[in-house]
Amino acid sequence: MWLSKKASRARIREAENARRNRQEIIKARSIGQVSRRDLLKWGLISAGGALAWKHGLNPFVRSAYASIPTGSPLSPLFGQLPFTQPMPRADLLPRHTDPFNRQWWFGKPVPQAEANVTQQLLDPALPGVLPGETGPIEGRPPGPIWAHQRWNEFLPRIAIEATQEGAKVNSSYDPGVTSMHNSGISAANPIRPAFHPHPNFPDQAPNTFWTFNGTLPPKLALARYGEPVLFRHHNRLPANIAHNDGFGRHTISTHEHNGHHGAENDGFTGAYFFPNQYYDYHWPIVLGGHFSVNLDASDPRAGAPDGSGGINKVPGDWRETMSSHWFHDHMFEHTAENVYKGNAALFNLYSSLDRGNEAINDGVNLRLPSGTGKDWGNLEYDVNLMLADKAWDQDGQMVFDIFDRDGFLGDVVTTNLVWKPFFQVERRKYRFRILNGSVARFYKLSLSDGKPMTIIANDGNLLPAPVVVTKTDHIGVAERMDIVIDFTQWNVNDKVYLVNLAEHEDGREVANNLSLSAAMSGASTDPGVGAFLEFHIVREPSQPDVSQVPEVLIPNPDLSAIPVAKTREFEFGRGADQPSNDPVTASDGEWGIRSRTSQDSGDMLAANFGRIDAMPRFGTREVWHLKNGGGGWDHPIHIHFEEGQILRRDGSFYNVPAWERGRKDVYRLRPGGEVTITMQFRDWGGMFMEHCHNTTHEDHAMLMRWEINDGGTPFLRPLPTPIPKPQGVVFQNPTVLPGA
Amino acid sequence: MMLVKGLIALLASSALIAGAGAAIEWNSATVPISGTVTGMPESVAFSGKVQIQTRRAIDPEDSRRNKLLLQIDFSGVSGVGAVSSATYVVEAQDVVTRPLASADVVTITFPFHSSSTRAVSASRTGTASFSLSVDTATGAVTAATASILSPER
User: Fold this and answer.
1) Do B21 and A466 touch (CB under 8 A)?
2) What's the CA gap between A661 and B34, in Å, rounded?
3) What is the pTM of this model?
4) What is the ipTM metric for this complex?
5) In Å, what is the CA distance from A516 to each residue of A303, A647, B4, B153?
6) What residues of B are in contact with residue A648 (Cβ under 8 Å)?
7) pLDDT tens for residues B65-82?
8) Which residues, in sequence order, are CB contacts of A110 under 8 Å at separation 6+?
9) What are the residues whose beta carbons fall under 8 Å from the beta carbon of A634, sequence distance 6 or more?
């Protein structure tokens, strides 16, 4: 996959040239100049999507300098040593408590239920725009169908806004903790857009790296249940589609993963918006079952911190409480490029059960490691870790390769977008909210000495009970795993490392699980294996550790009494058909999903966001079988909107490990495997998605649209498909798969 | 450090697991295991049986990429403290992916704790090593030795 560290300069140069040659084609594809069909016609890719075996293009063609394939060049490290620079904590997005005060919105109007279609002069650099043309200031599809559902019931009380823009220096970093809890990093010092703070590491160019607010570290939003949030996302990417430094699309759609919100706020893949537009995402932050369970809000376990040590009780099922989300781009066919390019942020939800205060002893609060200074949301001992593998060229600029249709892998694992940092900790318990923010890489994590750690949550949902492990299972792309590490197992001044045991040969699946000693040896051909984060135990606790890891966390909702309205099977595989030639909604990728119901045996179909493949009825429960169509792949399947429970793996509950026995939103199928889940469909409606979160697979058509069917107003049946244009969104009628 | 090797005795079976979807065949083997983990507060001598389920994942494009998936369950293993005679519990399970081969050595760590303490606050780590013979046509484990030892430092 990659060149050896000992490769000759000539071979590195040859591989770099091949990558540059590919980059020309990648850029043309990223800006829509060529299609997959064009590449097929020109013989540059195979029908299966693989890059043609041409010397000077494909890194695996026999080298001119040796008799073995060359591989890709390793990312240069500019003479730096690992674990010499601190890991920055995530950067808090400000929370404004008066969303209808215009001062927050960069001079734009305050939020409203329907999209704001006030016209603005369009930049003629936008595709398809003539000088003098106008378009709406908000990119949300207009009209009542895309109005925020139940807007007046859930008027936003918190305003959060962010731009998407090119890389720049961060001079307003807010880690939410003092430098003592941030490895000595002073928030007052500017942070460069680089994967390592050493001056030798180059800054990323503005059009190479497109992040929230254009800066590092990754952003973190905080919210409480019962406190509706309006997240306004401003698109400040270049109007010229070609100004992307070779990859990435300037249109975006922001998915709050795994928000339980109306579909107009879900970041639907076809509801993207253009540069110089904004999109208002309304996140009511309600518990599942808000309109059907605990209607009188009498149960304090369904609640949120009230700011002064008490609980604001809310309707809904407390067993649906969620904790660790994230939000990221979902642009049709370009999600991998855009997320890789920096469109990924973290999102912590707080509740009466998981309030981010380890001291309040009210009989409800689980008192997980966090801190005590504030009523809720303490971060001193509650740390977000975003893992993402990257690659950069000899100039240090990030590169991407869409020709890696197996799934793009970087050779450099970053934590909070820094290469091999250290993080200073006290000798006490910490909670780490780990997100796999990669494109295709799976991680299997262990501490370098194999000492135990405790999994408390998977996919942001606290488990029914904590699980003590010495290593995790594979963590798929978009999966979250919250672990507690008790650093009293070590002494002050000790160092221990977080280690990846999952070795890849390509982006298809994990090739091998290494033993701890093999992973630490440095012998793996996968540079992503081994230690990537150092914990340095620097002192005894600055305050007593009163945190707990209770025996019982959050039990699953019992769905057994709810009838199963429908059973469906979705098979994920390759060689999909695309019956549509719609140039906007239909993907020409080779991956696909076969949707089987009792009414239809199903074909393997490539993605088309204008086609509805499933229509579960509002207020019902269904059982879905998710099946891997082959043994040579793994697919982390994400189903939007509703949390599911795994009933069976490969046909048996025995095969469901303890850490997967809570609620989930990403389901790793494992090679040749299958997962059976059950879900309810309630509270909100609209069009949602199911897809592989190996975003390379997703972008090449392993995605489908499903839609909640009726349940009352205001949903039509089926919903018209939005077709965004800078001049305004138009709609077209969807097609519906038989048996959907 | 005392190292006690397990016997090459295993019960291999192949069970078609019933499910609502297409059933996937897993093979099951029970492998005796024993050995001692040294360290504070006391050494612990383990014995029991590990349940290993295996299945193949066949790559239709390249047989060199075929995998063996293992589910390893330690719940049949327990330990005795050398000083206290206390019982130690192993509740660990693991899921492992390996290249499919007729012989393999799988080395994994596992947590254990005294039955009188909570796992989340007092777990320690042991290492288990399995030497496996595998029928590559079925993915079944045909012979195995297993041992428990202290983790490498």
Assistant:
1) no
2) 30
3) 0.93
4) 0.90
5) 42, 31, 21, 11
6) 19-21
7) 999 999 999 999 999 999
8) A99, A100, A101, A102
9) A442, A474, A476, A508, A509, A510, A628, A668, A669, A670, A671, A694
